[in-house]
Amino acid sequence: MSRYPMDGTFELTLRCNLRCKMCMFRREDSQAMEELTAAQWIDLADQVAKAGTMSLLITGGEPLFRKDFTEIYAGIYPKGFLLALYTNATLVTDRVMETLRAMPPHRIGVTLYGTCNEDYKNICGLSDGFDRAMEGIEKLRTLPSALELRFTPTCDTIEKIEELDKRIYDRFGIHPILSARVFKAVRGGCMQPETCRPSPRQTVDITWKQTEARLRNLIPEEFKKYVKLEISDRCEYTEQTQTLLGCGAGMKSFTVTYDGKLLGCQLLDTFQTDALQEGFLPAWERFPETVQLPPHPCGDCEYLQNCTLCPAVAMAETGSFTGVPSYICEITKLTEKRKEEFR
Ligand code: SF4
Ligand code: SF4
To answer: Ligand 2: does its nearest atom lie under 6 Å from the Cβ of 314?
Structure first.
């Protein structure tokens, strides 16, 4: 089996200063979890670089919530990865900026949760969260890093997507990417989707509306009358002939968790080895032995090729690898219907 640990994720912590209703990762006991030390992360980064990893995502929880974030980051940076940093941008201190300015990541991803402080108070439990995120983004955009803004809507904010898009574009010149699918909590997380997740129909409606609007905006006015837009099915991943989880997870990508476990996919800890105890490379090499998947009952479904169901999502949504999540099923079928109508 040909595998190569090209893309890595370091999940520095599962702690966060926010309490977002739709966070899949944060756990009630996150504060008490024993995390790898700065020295352990830097040592792992060294091992990972020697194993040939090219790109590394630093994420959490909220990575800036760690008091030693700058120490960890400054230790990882010289290893030469294509670095990405995911943050909620509410903890961008002068010290963080000093470090990032000296060693800018290639890409920074910021997730937004609402259009005002009231939204952040209701959804994330931080009453000045919006102002703080805006200030954080103002600082981060002074770096030469590519800046990506994302928005995860909830039932409370789904109607405000256009307002947010306009507000953010007017201020930063960036359209936030809609990240509309919210899965149930994974790895013991404390999120309750029934209290916050938009319905499959709302999710498809809003995603579709945004995609269509963006596509139409991309085409210059004078060409519009000559062009018929086609929405094609998603690309097939043809290069990867062998997989463990049906995707690149564990084949070309991996996650090291806050406590040093090696996972194929950050959403799924059923299969794991121990990068801290075994060392990164032996843990990576042993990972395939841990993966045991039963056949999935969706094998005959006519929508299978265009469905985003995967083992991690089946487990998150249904608690079983053989479960068929109605949330995914409905989204897939509604999306296919939209495509038909569009053609
Ligand atoms: S969520 Fe599913 S498709 Fe995505 S990396 Fe994990 S296992 Fe693969
Ligand atoms: S989840 Fe539903 S739409 Fe997706 S493959 Fe299974 S049966 Fe088909």
So the answer is: no
